[in-house]
């Protein structure tokens, strides 16, 4: 239907989450109409993040270089680790202004049905961090979904076994059940953080 390069662009755009075939077409035609410099700025930005951004060697958050800005910040409290599913979940917790500790990004949630087992997530790395000492509390801030809850329970059990002196807490209820952390507003999330309970 389209010239091959146009079809290629439509195909690539339609792989983006939430972008169906019609939206992909609309975006492709928008890009075709755009001035070359503006269109290529998008291509360059994509290339740039793929070349420069990796995962933090400590917490697996997104990082430019070996460590993320939070792990590199000496003012952050190293005695508390907040465990989240995805790098995108760090942002809403940061926005609350209530949290001053470090993070640990799992890279997903346990979901046996989708073949996601404990060894597919950065759980061993979390245990190693906690066992290396200096950690007093681990806040489990996985999503309030079935898989997020299962992940929190699994990690809580693993931590109790390996580091019985470390306090393990879970965000207080009040977050919309089934929703992702990244959609929670900062007031609700801030309250959930402040009211966290031992698990
Ligand atoms: Zn980090």
For the residues shown, what is the average pLDDT? 94
Bound molecules: zinc ion
Put simply, the count of helices is 7
Tell me roughly what share of residues is in helical segments.
40-55%
Radius of gyration: 20 Å
**Overall 3D shape:** elongated
Low-confidence stretches: none
Give, in spatial order, the strands making up the sheet with the most strands: 4-3-5-6-7
Work out the strand percent.
5-15%
Count every beta strand, where a strand is a DSSP E run of 2 or more residues: 7
Structure commentary:
It is a single chain. By secondary structure, the chain is α/β, with parallel strands linked by helices. It is built from seven helices and seven strands; from the N terminus they run H-H-H-E-E-E-H-E-H-E-H-E-H-E. The chain has a five-stranded mixed β-sheet, with helices on one face. The chain has a two-stranded antiparallel ribbon with strand order 1-2. Helix 6 links the parallel strand 5 (137-140) and strand 6 (167-170). Helix 1 crosses helix 2 (21-33) and helix 5 (123-131) packs parallel to helix 6. The N and C termini lie far apart (57 Å). The model has no long low-confidence stretch (mean pLDDT 94). The site of zinc ion has 8 residues, from loops.
